Structure formats: structure tokens, C-alpha cells
Amino acid sequence: VTVTVSATASHPIPTTLWGQMFEDISHSGDGGLYAELLQNRAFQQVTPNTAAALNAWHSINGAALSVVADTVPVSSALPNSLQLTIPAGRTGPVGVGNEGYFGIKVAAGSTYTASFHYRFPTASSFRGSVTVGLQTSAGKSLVSTSVPITAASTAWTLVNVTLHPTASAASTANNFTVTLDGAAASGQTVHFAIFSLFPPTFKNRPNGMRVDIATTLSEMAPSFFRLPGGNNLEGQTVAQRWQWNATVGPLLSRPGRVGDWGYVNTDGLGLMEYLNWCEDLNMQPIMAIWSGFALGGTSVAEADLEPYIQQAIDQINFVIGDPATSSAAALRASLGHPAPFTLNYVEVGNEDFFAPSTYTYRWHDFVTALTAEFPNIHFIATTDTFDPILSPNPLQYDVHVYQTPTWFAQNSFFYDGFERNATKYFEGEYAAISTNASDIFGTPADGRFTFPTMQSSTGEAAFMTGLERNSDIVFSASYAPLLNHVANSQWTPNLVSFDAGNVYPSTSFYVQKLFSLNRGDEYIPSTLPTPAGTLFWSVVRKTSTREIIIKISNTVGTAAPVTFVLPFATVATTGSAQVLTGAETASNTPTTPNLVVPKNSTIPTGKTFSYTAPAFSVSVLTLVAH
Ligand SMILES: [NH3+][C@H]1C[C@H](O)[C@@H](O)[C@@H]1CO
Q: Residue 19 C-alpha to ligand 1 middle, in angstroms?
């Protein structure tokens, strides 16, 4: 095929085009990006005196354990404590261990900061010491330190320790342990509250992000970060919705919530952490507000919306308000960020095409009130585009599509036919997730991908060339879901998988990275690909370097020769090629983590040059031309 490139750009490309969608699904947050290593650290949202309340905790050497509703809770937000009784007649360490989020990585040279609160429900003359450590699940100590404790009072005492392992553990099958000497503490009962164990964090932020995952996400230079969801914004019930104010301030003040993906969210990764994260990666948030619909099916009646609208106003004021006039903004200032954060986009709900009939008034009432308060914010609607008709007319819609690789390859012209009527589109969730067109959301046995493959990733890349071509109306796009703990997935495939020890960037992640790191600031029209074809491309210009950047996706198993004809007076005779290619079913997985990674080379270029796109490949060709 011959591709003739135009001399003049058709439109500027928005700087927000490529970014990331986040929600706490498959332990993306708790057990993933959020660096806390202990699972069920504060016994939040569990029923006392049940085995489930002790999830991730186990007894060491006969200690009697139970989660109790403490008569003197450590805080009103954290009513549960761990009650530990040392039975008589035990010798050696007796206590409690935590197995982390399906393992704990212990690296020599890292400093681990551990903490917990303790109190003796009955005061006594007991004086002892507690040993805090990390050990393999076979019981071999990796590091430990001891701190004195006293039963002189029944008040809570905070213990902080640092651990410095001198050797790395052979695997992530390790436990965090808190023990007392069985003989010395025989018969003692101690209460513990909110344990915590942190490794070093990204940019050393307190209560921050896991370094390896954060670094991987930063490598694609995302321009936006959608938060906090996705389904996980919504709650199964109105009471279980995500509430910004329950996720800010001291961890002692954060009750946590039952998340929408089958596990308790600590909310240690809260709105302030999200916003600091956005600043650390130079991203802008696309922040959602709860829009009055819970996933269990409840819509708040219009007459009852006001408190939820006020909560949304406070949420936005927390982000951009003036501390002198807004208490929510004053709270932000007190937490260390007096200046407003960047916020241009607020999404009203999530996938409200599940509740379109009530979205008409929910959208109207939220957006009318919020626009009056925040005239510069762009509000994003989440129903199907223009169905139902909404008032005020949305100027932004969030469009989601999960489909087959073939669908993506066949629909790279999805937006070409959209009316140019001032409405802009956020392709907020997209991924090729199954080869089975009649059962997209089925199981792996039915064609569902567990990890992206070069078939799914080239399909997505084809679609993304269309998003780039239509970036006059597509302002943002993000693959979903972003993250996944391979030991506890609620959704596959995902962009980046991980376990307690490692991160596994997928083939689709490398596609996102190739598009995001090789952006142009203007789109250059060229011979259009055949919509029903198998080879797709987009051409952009980076005006600052006078580079032409050509992205090519070959979605089938035969190499595709393509000739480019450029109209520029000066064209470099060599250019760079960044190529991601592999077999149709090739995936990066925990067993083959780097099976398919981009390879760089130089290629001959010129006013007319040919390039052969390998089978199942995404290529980025860059050359200076003007
Ligand atoms: N059901 C998908 C759509 C929803 O918005 C997300 O929470 C889910 C996975 O990304």
C-alpha cells in the first residue's frame, strides 16, 4: 500500500490524549499501587469474633486471637482491635503473623517502617517486650527488633519501628510478625490496632506508592489519571459508595469501605494520595463524583439529592477551593497543599447507561449546581451518547468498549462518522478482552484473554490510530483495567499485572507506552487505511523537533509492506523505528515477563521510503521532515 502524507496538519492534538484509568479492582490499590504491605491491617469493615475478621492474620505458637469491638477503640473510625492472649505454659515467641497481600517482598538494603497501637485492657504491673519482625513462612527470621511494652495503663500506645533486613528473602512467602515471650508474658491479654508495614515509597511520600508499580506506570508518561472508578466509585448500596471525606486525613480517621470488587478498601489510598500522585507524574485527574446511583440498583430520588450534591461540591472544593472560603479547601491546606490542585474534568458517575432513566434528573441536578459553583470545570456524562437526551447538553461523554481484537481492528473509524458538534469524547475504558464475539465477558475457556496478546494489542493499536486521527473530538483515552494482582484478579486482561514481588507490563502496556511517548502536537492527514483492512496507521507531527511520527499496526500474521510518500522539501535519510512484534498469542506473563518488548532500530527514510510492518506488530517510525 502507498500512503501519501499531507503537507498541512488538520488539527492540534490535545495534550490529554493518552492516560490511565484507575480503580481499586484486582487489588490495584490495596495490595498494589498503595504501598501498605499488610492485608487487613486495621480490621476495617469486618464482623468481630468471626474467622473472616482475621483474614490474612494467623496465630504463632498457640496465641489466642480474635477481632473484638473494643470497649476503648483506638478511634471512632476504627472500632475493631485484635485481641491477643498468651496461653499459660508456652515458651518462645508467641503472637501473630500477617501474610501480606499474597506475599511480602523482603529486600536487603530496604528500610521497612512498621507501626501498631497497643493497649492492655486490664492494667497490671506487667512489663515486657514485643518483637517485631519479618520471617519466611517457614519461620526463618529475616529481620527483627524488640520494643518495651508496659501494662501500667489501659491507654493506647503507638509503637514505631524500622526494620533493616541484611539479606533478601528467597521468595515473597514471608510474614510480618509481632510476638511476646511466651514464658514472660504467660496469661497476658493485649489489644492491637492498625498495624502497618511500609517499604520505601515512590518519591519517598509518606503513605505513598509502591516503587516498582509506580515507576512502571510513570514510564508511559500518562497525561491524566481517572479516579476513583469505575464501578468502585459506586457502592452496592448508597451507604457503601466511595466518599471523598472518608478517605482523607489521618489513617485513624479512615473507616475504609466494602469495595465493589469483593474486598475491603482501606482507603489508605485516598483523595489526597491520588492528587499528590497526579502531581508526581505530571498528570491531571479526571475525577469522578458519585452521581446518585448504587450498583445494587438504587437511584437516589430527586428530592433527596441535595446532600449528595453538597458532598460533591465539597469534594471539588477539597481539590480546587479557596481555603479562606471553603472548609474542604482549608482541610486540603492543613494536609499540606494550600494551593489548589489542577482539575479540569469531573465525571458524573460511572457507566450510568445502567440507570439512564434516573440519570436525566441526576445529571441535570448535579451539573446545574456544580456548574454554578465551578464554571470552569468540564463535566463528563456517562450514559450512551445522546441517549437519553440530557439537559444541560453534555459537552463531554465517557465512552467504554470491551470487544474482540477483530472488532477493534474493524472499528478504527468508529469516531470518523461522529458529528462535529462541539461534543468531545473520553474513550475512558477500552480493551480487547476476548476472541469470542458472542460471549465477550466470558471465561478463558470461552475465549477471554487472561493477559493481553499480540492479537489483542495490535487490535487496540489499530483502534488507537483512529483515536489519534479523531483527536479533534477525542480528548482522552485509557485502557482498562490498569492494574491486576495475579493472585487475586476480578477481571482479565489488564494493562499491568503484578504480584508481591514483581511487575509484569503487558504487550498492551507497551502499545500504550509507544503511543504516549511518541506524541505529536498536530495530526497530519494521509491516505486513509481501509476500514475493513488489516493494516492501520496514523501520522502526527511534533513541531518542536520537526519530526514526523508514523504509527503502524499490522493486525494479522503476514508482514505488510508500505510505502510512504512525503511532501516535505527536506526529509531525513534515516529515521528510527520502535517495533513491538510477536506471535499472535504471545503474552508477557509472570512466567514469560519479557517475551515481547519494543525493539529499536534505524531505518532508511526519504521523500519516498518503504517499510515492512512485521506480522502482528506495532511500529513507530520517526524522522525529521519539513
Ligand atoms: N465493568 C468495567 C466497567 C467499569 O467502569 C469498570 O469498573 C469495570 C472494569 O474496568
A: 16
